[in-house]
Amino acid sequence: MTSDIENLLREMPLRKPAASLDARVVGRRRRLRIILWTAATAGVAAAAAAAIIMLAGPGGPAKLPVLPPPAGVAQAPSPAEPVRLQRNWSQLSYEGVVVPDGRTPLRQFRHQALEHVQWIDAARGTKTEMTIPREEIILIKAPID
Amino acid sequence: MRQAIERIYWERRQGLYTLALAITRCPGRAEDAIQEAFARLWKTAARPGGDLVPYVFAAVRNTALDQLRRQEAAAGVEPASIYNGLPADPASEIITAEEHRLVREAVESLPEDQREAVVMRIYGNLTFEEMAKALGEPLQTVASRYRRAIEKLGEKVKRVAGPSHDQ
Q: Hey, which of A13, B7, B113, B130 would disulfide with B88, CB 3.0 to 4.6 Å?
């Protein structure tokens, strides 16, 4: 009877966790990595900015390099300087198992981010803002249940 | 070490979820408990040597108990079963819908510590030694609790279903 009951218990259909749990658990670990990576990148960028200011000498504050404006504002007569670049949204979601080569199962995650950029044209007194979506697919070889 | 914990998640996620659900009786809180447990595990630098499986189960159990305390403080929540409403294979001769109902009710009527023992052993695939480590209790205590639970389940299913089940 005891083993019968154990067998019955093993045959019972269990309630499954939501598919989003994987992204919540493993994605969090990845997000921590991304945050650390972003912090490291920010450190390098700050060091580079300090180096530019030092190279510019004592003649006053160095001007930021001018980046090309987005396609929609390319016809503007005066150059516009990007004054702000900020990643203001990012998420990692788990999308299940894929087998791209027909042999090796891989877990697929999608990393999406939105970056916000502002261009200010001081001569014309205008401001252009742009939100740039970025997306990458991450494939991880992992044991499959 | 982190890779080992992530591997345990992929290999044992159903068992971990069932344990968390058996404690919280709420699917959402069970998932919250697992997320919280792993968030802590990712951040913790020092981990015990040897088998990490009981360590991960203990972490999930603790956060599930935390969730349960918060849940009890909140308004009444309809308790959820660890089982799905329908058998995996309704045509199966091994388990019928009636047996399914009997077993589910019997498991849910067990005292909490015995239900936990059954879930860890049957659905978490833990050995008695791993269960003892996860619960922080002597191996004999955990093994006896599990056997008592199984005996109780057997009696309940037999009593309700009749002698034809005792074969």
A: A13
